[in-house]
Each structure stands twice: as structure tokens, then as C-alpha cells.
Amino acid sequence: MYLTAGLHRSVQKHPDKTATVTGSRRQTFQQLAQRVAQTAGALQALGMQPGERLSVLAQNSDRMMELLLAGWWAGLVVNPINTRWSAGEVSYALRDCAASALAVDDALWPVAQSLEADLPALRHRLYMGQVATPAGYQLLEALVQQAPVVEDVRSAPDTLAAIVYTGGTTGFPKGVMLSHGNFWASLVGRMAEIPNPPEFVTLLTSPMFHVAGLGRMLGQTIVGGTCVTVPVFQPQAVVAKMAKEQVSDLVIVPSMLQMLLETEGFNPQGLPGLQRILWGAAPITVPLLQRAMATFPAVEFIHAYGMTETAASVSVLRLSHTPEFLGSERIRSAGQAGLSAEIRIADEQGQEVPRGTPGEIWIRGPMVMQGYWGRPQETQQAVRDGWLRTGDGGTMDQDGYLYVIDRIKDMVITGGENVYPAEVENVLCSHPAVQACAVIGVPHEKWGEAVHAVVVLRTGAQATAADLDAHCRSQIGAYKCPKSFEFRDQLPMTAAGKVQKTALRKSVAGQPQP
Question: 249-252 and 276-279 as β-strands: parallel, antiparallel, unpaired?
């Protein structure tokens, strides 16, 4: 299937139903389809041909949705760009994927002004804003208003649909190539396990340059559900928008969930429409999860595990509010393999290890990427006989439930012992004074690496390094406990809500460690 098929279906079934809400602007599926077809006409009028790359540097909005869908309608390959990147990183992506066109909104215009001049493939610069058009750019809205409505190309399933760059937290970002079929397999597999009623109103908190946000938008388009957008995640504004629009469905990362719960004046009773919270993309601590589930006792919680290379989730766990479940080990699970996926825990040779034994998570299925753009060797290293090597460490129990331990590259090897930061972070966050933390490895003369904890305390709370050390030693082995602690006001975060551990490592590099 092709990614605009859902829009055709929704126009046929729900033409007058609200499709998008951005600020005070609302449009039906009929109006959305009209805008998409006309925007595709504008892109074709510029001379863009199927297979060319359309890069989009914009915050979540109905206009961004229209442009992404229009790119697929016209047979283009869309490249939604990380809005937290510097101009240098954006220039790298544009040059790497040889983008023919770049669309920029008002909020990202300052970044666009600083782009490299040497981008020979970039023929068209489009401005998505409403004010005076900057020099060298064409006003997209004017082009759309003049453009004809064109027919949908209806791309084949194996046609490249998107190049989504990895976070770039280590080395240069890699462009993940995802086909129409990759996305469709992921979406349908997820919806087969987690019902997606057309009456659900989804708040797109995850940015659409991330597969979680992109996938959720597409899922709503397929079933005829409403997408409410916010440009950036600001807890108070998000809570107000959820209350106003009676949002029923929220896809979120743990850091966002924590910010919501700690928003001043937050009252869960003010969100009567909320029925489901789906979280993923980063580890969550058990104390935070238990707190969230206690705050929303009538809301279903779902943990989804996946990655950019799998067009989002490959496994899901529907959590129970029962005391038995909340106190069980299974609360830490990422669920069982989804209906479109095979998952195994493998050793370095790719052989499946016995149940309960740590190894690397490997994934196979129709959602696995076509490869990394322009990087055949790295593609070969990542995909072996159809199996994607995720780089995530994990275990699987006798019932096939997956437990994600941590990123293998984040593992700390201290004195020959393997320490997974997520385990230590989980213990630290169970201390009542700790709001957030991140654990990394730092060089150590004696042990090779030492466990180092960067901690954010709750407002008004106090705790010393000695307090936290004693807390950790009461729950985990001494070799896993941080050898040093650092207290900060906040942790560096990516736009997708993940802690930037590379930035943390750089910031502590060279500092003397005990």
C-alpha cells in the first residue's frame, strides 16, 4: 500500500469529520485532501519528479502534515529534518540526501538563514510562513493557491517514501530509508494489536521528524481520526490544549510524561477525555511509571518499543493497573513481538541465546528499513539475512516477553563487569529527592571506566552524593553503583525527548574522577 491510501479512505468514509486542528484553524478530511492534492500540484509545477527529495524543516502543524502527504501524493521522498539541529547539521542532511527542495516555516527561519551556500542539488527554497517572503525563497501558500489539483501517483509499496535521519548523537547522522511498505507494515501491525478508533482525538506531541510522530499522524489519517498539533512541547500549553480539544490519545516519551505530572497546578481531573497514553523511545523508570498510572487510574498505558530503522514500534505491552502487575517484573517489559515482527536475542554471531540470557535485540519483518542512504557498508553491518541488529541490549523470558536493558554502546564496562545505565538510573530515580538522572561511563585509571551519575533533584529537595550512594548500595551491587555524582539543574535533551548522553560525556571529559 501507499501512504496516501489512508487519506482516500477517510475522505470516502468521513469527508466532513475534523481531520486537523492547529490553533484556531480546523479542517475536514475533504478539505485536507483538497489541500494535499493542490500542494502536490504546486510541487509538480516546480518541476519536481518522483523520487526527488523534499526536505521539511518545520514544527508540527496542519501545514506540515499537508506538505508531507503532498510529497507522497506527488511521488517524492520526504525528509523531515530535526528542528533542534544546528544550521551545519541541517546543511549536512540536505547535502547528504541531495534534496531538490527545502520548505521552512517561521519558527525555523533563523536556522535556514545560516545554511551553507554550497548546496548544488537544492533548486527550490520554499517558505511556509505567512509574513513577507524572504529573499531567495518562494511563498509556498501562493504556489498552492495557483496550482491545479493533481492525481495521486499511488506509489508501489517498495517505493522509497522517506529518509529520516538518526539523531546524530554520535558521529554523523545516518539517513534511514523507509518505503511506503515499511511504514504500512508497521502501522497495520500496531493497529491490529492496539485498536485505533476513528473517534480518537490524538495530540501530536512527538515531532513529525521522528517516526513516532510521523507514524501516529499516518495512523490517524488511515482510520479517520483527528490530529491536534502543538508546535513544541510546553507542559502547560499541552495540558490546556488537551482539555480544550478533549484529547483521548497521547503518544509521549518519559521525559514529557514527567514534565506533565510536575506542571504547576496540574489536575488530571481536567482531562476527562484522555483514554490512552502510549510511551516509548527512551527508558522509563518504574517509579515514574507507577506514579503516572496512579495519577491516571482509568487511562490505559501502553509501552511501545521500536526505532527509526523499523518505522516505529515492533512490540507493545498493554499494562494493567492491578497491584499484582504493578509489583511484578513484567512492568519493565516492552511486550511481545508485534504481528508484523520477529524478535530474537542474539550473540555476536547472530545465534539466538537461551531465554533469560542478555544479548543484542535483532528484528526481522516487512517494516525493517531498506538501508542507510548512501552507506552500503553500514547497511550491510546493520542488516544480516534480513535481520536488523538494533544495537540494543535485551533479554526475553520464557513467555516471549522482551526486556530492553539499554543501548549496547551506552553500557559501562568497569573492572571487567558490564553495567547497564538504565538499571542504575532506575534505582536512582526511586530516591524521593531525585527528579531525573543519567548514568554514563567515564575514564578511570584503575577500572578502565567508572560509573558516573548526573542528577537533577526535585525542586526544594535535598540529597548529597553520600545519600544517593547509600541508596544505590542498598539495592544493587557495589560495582554497579556510581563512583561519582554530579548535580545539575537539567539534563541535555534531544528534540525527541531523549537524554543526550554524548553531550554529557563531552561535558565531563577531562574532569578528575575518584
Answer: parallel
Parent domain of 169: 29-179
Please report where in the chains the cell 532506575 appears, as a residue.
426
Q: Where are the alpha helices (DSSP H) in 262-352?
A: 286-295, 323-326
Amino acid at 38: Q
Reported as a single tens digit per residue, the pLDDT across 309-354 is 999 889 999 998 988 888 888 888 999 999 889 999 999 888 999 9
DSSP collapsed to 3 states, 251-263? EECHHHHHHHHCC
Of 193, 253, 259, 184, give the one whose Cα is nearest residue 3.
Answer: 184
pLDDT tier for residue 496 given thresholds of 50, 70 and 90: low
Do the domain assignments include residue 374? no
State the CB neighbour count (10 A cutoff) for residue 269: 5
> What's the pLDDT tens digit per position in 264-301?
778 888 888 999 999 887 777 788 888 899 999 999 99
Backbone dihedral angles phi then psi of residue 392, each to the nearest 5 degrees: -95, 135
Say which CATH number the domain at 137 has.
3.40.50.980
d(CA 382, CA 360): 12
> For residues 79 and 121, what is the distance between their CA atoms, to the nearest angstrom?
14
Q: How many CB atoms lie within 10 A of CB 238?
A: 21
Cell numbers representing residue 503 in the block = 553531550
* Sheet containing strand 276-279, strands side by side: 25-28, 18-22, 226-229, 201-204, 249-252, 276-279, 300-307, 312-318, 336-337
CA dihedral 305, 234, 54, 7 (to 10 degrees): 70
Q: Which residue has the cell 547472530?
A: 350
Q: For the chain, what is the domain count?
A: 2
The C-alpha atoms of residue 359 and residue 365 are separated, in whole angstroms, by 19
Q: What is the pLDDT of residues 431-477, one digit of tens each?
A: 999 998 999 888 877 677 789 999 999 989 999 999 999 999 888 87
Query: Could you count the other beta carbons within 10 Å of the beta carbon of residue 400?
Result: 13
**Contact 452/488 with Cβ under 8 angstroms?**
no
- 3-class SS at 13? helix
In a domain, 373, yes or no: no
pTM of the complete model: 0.83
> 3-state class of 370 per DSSP?
coil
